[in-house]
């Protein structure tokens, strides 16, 4: 088979998708946007699906997850065509592109062979500015064309949540109709709406947005809700206020505008990129197996360290580094995204907590409701999300506010919840809302004047679990009613209040720990509550600032553990007593965990 023209004399555009001669394939004919054409990965020429021998799925005209070589580039082996596994950027981008083309054909009552879809009329067609919603448009389209769009990708129960997270986080590829209120439930269009530019690898590169070529963004009002928790250890009070205005994402420093960044800047420094670019290709993963509280034990990651010759092991932090949801401290039925900021579940109420607690001071974080606040659908309860704060003793297989160790805000009715008791509080919230949560904790020395900080007793054993080294330690048991016990003297360093969310049957949310917030609270929310003048320095801190403090505390506790163990071993040596160094227990075989005994030696901390 030979070309009917000289392909070396063609004049191509910058993206190598259209040539001025409008000759393609072996036949030399023009190509339609509405028909399947594939690009050779060697010569970059385009070939009609009807002209090649390889079997190609023609269900949808636009897809990019393939690798094709024409007869002339592949030598004696002839043509080769192979579909690749598509990333979520490709899936979302191709789905929107096909929907844009379908909508244009519907609006203009055009057929597939309409001349306007030829490459010679590409300039007349222009960009197609159509916006599509994840739940109303993208979810049914992807579900219907799964084999064409998601080749070799397993259909998980929460794939639609992963797709929504990708659309929300990938700002260099997808633009929301209302950028000020961007969320996973927004209506999205392609940043580059020119469908003639789409080719293999198109959705793996950043695209510049040209506002003059895009439809003017509509500005819809959006509610702002802040939960204000001013509490002692016995009571929590909340306030809320709504501001019917559209405001951009703001810095936690009042009056300070966020810095601008190029599309290629570090995602950790960008203002709105709450999720790293590579995480949009990562599916939701179930919370770790080792967090199962078998026989009352909990687990934390650790690693060997030669700087600790006696302890031998120390705490370690797992990526992604920063304040995030903790897979080690979440219900087993919870699904958490790759960046560990978005979470969902397909079962009943399940809880996920952040990896850092707060013990004193005033702190704030935001929750984007990707899906929640649904009523009954076909007689069954819809998706729900509850947000709030919880201590580590809180039940992870129940909603926030179900026990004495958590305080929650209910989506369906707007009630605040504590010990499963509802109290009127604010407005209901649903998909697309942004909930701000503020907590005010008094200094410990103010609540307990005689309180002295004591070294936490951390009785931990390093074990091997499926190739990973983790600490096993006895879980802190909740106290019963009418039990006089000073739990502060038994603080192991992990107590305090954790940002917490719980989901129900598809409820999905994304947490923003700062430092930039969409709706930051006033400088002093407690003064505003009292209708006083709100001026002066900011009184609260974003939760993101707590992470480095928490790491420093862990390092300090590890050093103290090492010193105390050294001191204890020296005392045993002086007494001529045999010293039994704890050994590593291997649980890789997945056998039943045996109950372990911890020697209660005052002032002693086991590894």
TrEMBL record:
Residues 214-236 have a biased composition (Basic and acidic residues). One of its GO terms (molecular function) is transcription cis-regulatory region binding. Its main location: nucleus. SMART domains: PHD, SPRY. It comes from Diversispora eburnea. Residues 303-518 form the B30.2/SPRY domain. The lineage of its organism: Eukaryota, Fungi, Fungi incertae sedis, Mucoromycota, Glomeromycotina. Keywords: Metal-binding, Nucleus, Zinc, Zinc-finger. Coiled coil: none annotated. It is found in: Nucleus. This is 7553_t:CDS:1. Residues 245-265 have a biased composition (Polar residues). It holds the Pfam family ASH2L-like_WH. One of its GO terms (cellular component) is Set1C/COMPASS complex. InterPro entries: ASH2, ASH2-like_PHD, ASH2L-like_WH, B30.2/SPRY, B30.2/SPRY_sf, ConA-like_dom_sf, SPRY_dom, Zinc_finger_PHD-type_CS. Residues 203-265 are annotated as: Disordered. Belongs to the cclA family. CDD domains: SPRY_Ash2 (cd12872).
